[in-house]
Amino acid sequence: QVQLVESGGGSVQAGGSLRLSCAASGSTYLTNCMAWFRQAPGKEREGVAGIYTGGGSTYYADSVKGRFTISQDNAKNTVYLQMNSLKPEDTAMYYCAASYGGSWSDQSSFAYWGQGTQVTVSS
User: Fold this and answer.
1) Where are the beta strands (DSSP E) in the chain?
2) Helix ranges (DSSP H) in the chain
3) What is the largest CA-CA distance in the chain?
4) Contact 79, 51 (CB under 8 A)
5) CA 55 from centroid of its chain's CA atoms
6) d(CA 89, CA 63)
7) Which tens digit of pLDDT belongs to each residue from 94-123?
8) Residue whose C-alpha is closest to residue 33's, from 99, 103, 113
9) Burial letters for 84-104: b for 16+ Cβ neighbours within 10 Å, e otherwise?
């Protein structure tokens, strides 16, 4: 089992920044991909960014490329999502997820999910 706890959400004006954290505990050695997903009201959940924890390869949705950065601190078993130049359309509940493998953007690959942290961007 893997437990994930997100933090760092909040309210910010457009153009601002936030850093989300996802602290993992439990059998984290079994997972090789961590990702952030988000779900806005009335919309489907979508992949935002993913990182393969073994080699450190990162991937991003087109909508956040150049603005968001996913990173990991293996010593702390924590994955981060640095979000810069935030836009109102980034407003959503953000979820951290962990998988044993597969595509970073395929939600069905992820067995473990956090509770989510709300990000609200005002114009």
Assistant:
1) 2-7, 10-13, 18-26, 33-39, 46-52, 58-60, 68-73, 78-83, 92-99, 110-113, 117-122
2) none
3) 41
4) yes
5) 18
6) 10
7) 999 999 888 999 999 999 999 999 999 999
8) 99
9) eebeeebbbbbbbbbbeeeeb
